[in-house]
Design a protein that fits this description.
The complex is a heterodimer.
Chain A: E1 2-7, E2 14-20, E3 23-30, E4 40-45, E5 52-56, E6 61-65, E7 71-77, E8 80-86
Chain B: E1 25-26, E2 28-30, E3 74-76, E4 80-84, E5 102-109, E6 112-113, E7 118-125, E8 130-145, E9 148-160, E10 169-176, E11 182-191, E12 194-205, E13 209-217, E14 227-229, E15 244-246, H1 247-253, E16 256-260, H2 280-290, E17 301-307, E18 318-319, E19 331-335, H3 350-369, H4 410-415, H5 424-432, H6 435-438, E20 463-468, E21 475-476, E22 483-490, E23 496-499, E24 509-515, E25 520-523, E26 535-538, E27 543-549, E28 552-553, E29 556-557, E30 563-572, E31 577-587, H7 593-602, H8 605-612, H9 620-632, H10 637-647, E32 655-660, E33 663-668, H11 673-685, H12 688-695, H13 697-713, H14 717-733, H15 738-750
Parallel strand pairs in B: 13-16, 13-17, 17-19, 21-31
Antiparallel strand pairs in B: 1-6, 2-3, 4-5, 4-12, 5-7, 7-8, 8-9, 9-10, 10-11, 11-12, 14-15, 18-19, 20-22, 22-27, 23-26, 24-25, 24-30, 28-29, 30-31, 32-33
Classes of the chains: A mainly beta, B alpha+beta.
The structure holds zinc ion (ZN).
GO molecular function, one term (chain B): metallopeptidase activity
Region (Disordered) (chain B): 1-23, 219-239
InterPro entries (chain B): MetalloPept_cat_dom_sf
């Protein structure tokens, strides 16, 4: 299924990587747009059992992303990534 | 006929409530409840769940009978915007107006909607440009009689140039004149070690600023309504008044005189490009094309677009898209085909839910355009994005700026408790922060001192004032007096009546000189020419001129060392101050040892007077210095000025006071036209272009005329004619206005 990863608060010119089964499939820079509280939305096609991870290489952070829900919210808070899966499509205004 | 449906009964909504009908509107303050210690300035706001809005006094019906013997202590609302009272010159006076280069705006916020118990003051000095902003917390608010109000406040926030309005405490007083309403408004600023200042104010508006919204809808956005009937959805605070809210009414209660532009245009969906959804830059393009007030400048105006969908997709309900280009926060968009139309399953009134969410989103996006952050981001700071004052995050706030679905209990908890208002902290920012933080299209530009391009809103566009050197380049040599020319042009389509000597007399102009980026010094003319005011008509496109030696002021020399200087002028037109461009000039370093030797004697007040007055025989030492300059620095621009000044008194029967037999007597000096003519001819006519460059046209040609007159009066007609003919040919080569040349030709003929 398609999992939407929503990068939300706390990113400022942050280099990020999306990894599937250990392979970097995408590398990008994240900047939170304050007026939305959102930096980027990335889609991953993942079957159950696929290992999806988000990495911030400049901070040596690598965090698994559950693929149990259609949406995953990811924020950077106090130098740590918080990852919260949800069934509810995150909305921005 | 009775009608029943599944939706709970809601009484038919009234139209928008008038201010006085609304329970949150405080129209009066009474002597009894006049607050002598406003401890909780700002009151309690909707910063978290379950915070009740304190009930306010019921509003009495006027007129209130005055019971004899009992002093009536009731004061109507004073919140709003005030400005410094306009001071006009006395009628029939000498015609020199009071040059008021400082504007003061006072925002008093103590009653009406959601009073924040604040007084803020904005001071703008036009020339040299400088601003100050302060916010004071109200400490007491007393009603001492019928419409006699005294409000005290302590300054708690300052920004900009404090010297413009020093002090610590404010007293705002509003009182009656002969009528029942207020007619006198006074602000007193006091502080330890600073003189007390009293400002008389005029009431401008009950609102803190005016703002215009233009609402444009894309033709496939479904023509959404921009109103919301507060009782249409059953999930609401029990105390919420039943009314129809509009975009304007919400912002009016926030303190802005919000109006909707009549120039709304339907926008074709093709503007979204081939994919049919809108990118930020497509919206920015549409804003430039369709917004009738689009301009790349700060203005209290905002474009609100209702469109179908953003490129981001269904998950984006709206966005303040305008963080593109130099002027941000001018445009917002709301997307009708997005998640904001998804009423929860089983909702009691899905249609009302959708309309409420659309309305909420519109106000939310517009709030971003007022520079409001989301409730959970208030404390967020980093390079280039600090909160204006330290703020706390308010993730539970019942505000237009919070996400309803992110609070504890979700959107239903939010709306059960939402009063359709901004928080106190948000209102304090919108009403009282330095206006450039809030105003759409504005940026954090700031210059505490020095020169800036004039702000367009200060001007009516009727006149243009130019400061220019009237020569090819802006470089002056060391010791060379800097003369500048002022040119005021009627840029309107109408003839304008004005005093033709406006630029020449020194009383109507202000001029500032700044060395490099250092201190700005005011130039005070050494001569103020008094004359009977003589208004004449200036046709559209026509100009008047004036010339001034700006190197020296009554306070000493302003330009006395090598380097770059900025010069800017303003002219007082009574109802506006027209400001000029900034002229940058360069003074070259000395190339001659002799110059450096003479400099200490030259840069004195007496020498500056002798130069400005074309010689001053009583200032012996100054005249000796000028003689030395003329003789020892031949060919330099300074020597030309010196020679002209040395010769000046000899051209006429110069009168001076002399001591004779123990008393003073007026003695006529000896006119030595021959010697004067020799000196001046050398200075003015040996190298006419160079001389015209350093003196400037007005001074140069006037001097030649004076010389010609003196020669003519002493019987040297042929020489006088020669002077005039040289003058005319220089005028022609320098493309002087034809009417000036014609006057000179007529004069030459009559010699
Ligand atoms: Zn927002």
């Amino acid at each position: 299924m398609i999992v939407e990863i929503h990068f939300q608060e706390g990113f400022s010119n942050e280099k990020a990587q999306l990894l599937v089964d250990g392979e970097v499939v995408e590398e990008f820079f994240l900047n939170t747009r304050f007026q939305l509280g959102m930096a980027a939305i990335k889609k991953v096609d993942a079957v159950r059992g696929t290992k999806v991870q988000v990495a911030l290489p400049d901070r040596s952070i690598k965090q698994p992303v559950p693929v149990s829900h259609p949406y995953v919210k990811v924020s950077l808070e106090d130098g740590k990534l918080t990852v919260s899966p949800t069934d509810q499509m995150p909305g921005y205004v | 006929m009775s009608k029943k449906n599944n939706a709970p009964e809601t009484p038919a909504p009234t139209l928008a409530l008038s201010d006085e009908q609304h329970p949150d509107y405080q129209a009066y303050v009474y002597g009894d409840d006049a607050d002598d210690s406003v401890a909780e300035a700002g009151g309690i706001g909707p910063d978290g769940p379950g915070v009740p809005i304190p009930p306010l006094n019921p509003i009495p019906d006027l007129p209130i009978p005055n019971i004899p013997g009992i002093p009536l202590r009731i004061c109507s609302a004073v919140s709003g915007r005030y400005k410094l009272k306009t001071v006009l010159p006395p009628i029939g006076g000498p015609g020199i107006p009071i040059l008021n280069l400082t504007s003061i705006t006072v925002r008093v916020d103590v009653d009406r909607f959601y009073p924040q118990k604040r007084i803020s003051i904005e001071v703008t000095r036009l020339l040299p440009r400088s601003t100050a902003h302060l916010i004071a917390n109200v400490t007491s608010d007393q009603c001492t009689g019928l419409n006699r109000r005294k409000i005290q406040a302590t300054i708690a926030y300052r920004e900009g140039n404090n010297a413009l309005i020093p002090g610590e405490k404010l007293l705002f007083e509003a009182s009656r004149g002969i009528g029942i309403g207020y007619s006198n408004y006074k602000l007193t600023v006091t502080g330890a070690g600073t003189p007390t200042r009293v400002y008389n104010l005029d009431f401008v508006s009950q609102y803190f600023d005016d703002v215009e919204f233009e609402v444009d809808k894309v033709d496939n956005a479904g023509n959404p309504s921009t109103d919301y009937a507060t009782h249409s959805h059953p999930n609401r605070p029990a105390s919420l008044p039943n009314e129809v809210l509009s975009l304007e009414s919400v912002y009016k209660r926030a303190g802005f005189n919000a109006t909707i532009s009549p120039n709304s245009t339907p926008i074709p969906a093709t503007g979204a490009g081939a994919n049919g959804t809108w990118s930020d830059s497509e919206m920015h393009n549409a804003m430039q094309t369709y917004w009738s007030r689009f301009a790349n400048k700060p203005q209290w105006a905002l474009w609100v677009l209702f469109a179908n969908q953003h490129d981001t997709g269904y998950g984006l309900g709206g966005v303040m898209f305008d963080d593109i280009g130099p002027n941000h926060r001018q445009g917002t968009a709301i997307f009708t085909n997005s998640f904001i139309k998804d009423a929860p399953v089983g909702d009691a009134n899905p249609a009302a839910w959708r309309q409420r969410m659309l309305f909420w989103t519109a106000i939310h996006e517009m709030g971003h355009a007022f520079n409001l952050a989301h409730s959970w981001q208030k404390a967020l700071s980093g390079p280039g994005y600090n909160p204006w004052i330290p703020l706390l995050n308010q993730p539970e706030a019942r505000s237009f700026m919070n996400y309803p679905y992110n609070v504890s209990g979700g959107q239903s908890a939010f709306f059960s408790n939402f009063d359709f208002r901004f928080t106190n902290e948000e209102l304090q920012f919108m009403r009282h922060a330095p206006r450039r933080f809030v105003q759409m299209g504005n940026e954090n530009w700031f210059s505490n001192h020095g020169f800036e391009a004039p702000q367009p809103e200060f001007f009516t566009g009727r006149y243009k004032l130019e400061v220019r050197p009237n020569r090819e380049n802006n470089t002056y040599s060391f010791l060379e007096p800097v003369s500048i020319e002022l040119k005021l042009t009627n840029t309107s389509a109408e003839p304008m009546a004005l005093d033709e000597h406006l630029l020449q007399d020194g009383g109507h102009i202000v001029l500032f000189v700044q060395k490099d980026s250092g201190t700005v010094r005011k130039w005070e003319p050494l001569i103020v020419r008094c004359h009977q005011e003589h208004k004449s008509m200036l046709a559209p496109g026509e100009s008047i001129y004036g010339t001034h030696l700006v190197s020296a002021s009554t306070s000493g020399w302003l330009i006395d060392e090598p380097g770059f200087y900025n010069i800017q002028a303003g002219v007082d037109m009574l109802d506006e101050v027209v400001m000029s461009n900034v002229l940058r000039v360069f003074v070259a370093p000395s190339t001659d040892k002799e110059e450096n030797k003479i400099a200490p004697d030259y840069f004195t007040e007496d020498v500056s007077r002798a130069l400005v007055f074309d010689g001053a025989p009583e200032l012996n030492k100054a005249m000796d210095t000028l003689k030395e300059v003329a003789e020892k620095l031949p060919g330099t621009p300074a020597s030309l000025h010196a020679a002209k000044a040395v010769a000046g008194p000899m051209l006429k029967q110069y009168k001076r006071l002399e001591e004779k037999d123990g008393s003073l007597a007026v003695v006529a000096g000896k006119a030595d036209v021959e010697e004067a003519a020799r000196l001046q001819t050398a200075a003015l006519l040996d190298a006419p272009q160079k001389a015209a460059d350093t003196f400037g046209h007005i001074d140069y040609f006037q001097s030649l005329e004076t010389l010609a007159d003196a020669l003519n009066d002493s019987g040297k007609k042929a020489e006088a004619k020669k002077v005039m003919s040289s003058s005319i040919s220089t005028m022609k080569s320098r493309k002087v206005l034809s009417e000036v040349i014609e006057q000179a030709e007529a004069k030459a003929k009559n010699l």
